[in-house]
Amino acid sequence: MKLLTSTLTGMALLGAATLTQAADNPLSVHILNIQTGKPSGGVEVVLEKQTDSGWETLNQATTDEDSGRISALFPEGEEFSEGVYRVTFETGDYFDAQGTDTFFPEIPVPFKVENTDQHYHIPLLLSPYGYSTYRGS
């Protein structure tokens, strides 16, 4: 019983730490496959920032299998500054894994950060031959 209680307490603390990190992180993404109505897990997402010399890669992560989310995409410990950023959803491998053809092997979404005190959420509604995105909350 003590082991079970200790394990559950540890899991709760780990979950709380993850939620705190996500709450403190200024950027999240989410992908929903509108053809299946299910989240798109296993999609690699690359975050870049535009500089005078081009695009600088800041981070990359993979969407969660259950929720299709990355709740903390901005790299921990880095300064979130104003500017133009881009998230690129690597959708080709996702559709290949499902045995589905797609017209969009990757979907780059540039966005402008003007207020670093705000949270930026970029949802992607995805199908093999179309997509839509918007600024979420």
Question: What does the model show?
Answer:
22% of the residues lie in helices and 40% in strands. The protein is of the alpha+beta class. It has a single domain (26-133), classed as Transthyretin/hydroxyisourate hydrolase domain (Immunoglobulin-like), CATH 2.60.40. Strands 1, 2, 5, 8 and 9 form a five-stranded mixed β-sheet that branches. Strands 4-3-6-7 form a four-stranded antiparallel β-sheet. The chain starts with a helix and ends with a strand. Residues 3-9 and 11-21 have low confidence and may be disordered.
Condensed summary:
With 137 residues, the protein is an alpha+beta fold. Helices cover 22% and strands 40% of the residues. It is globular and about 40 Å long.
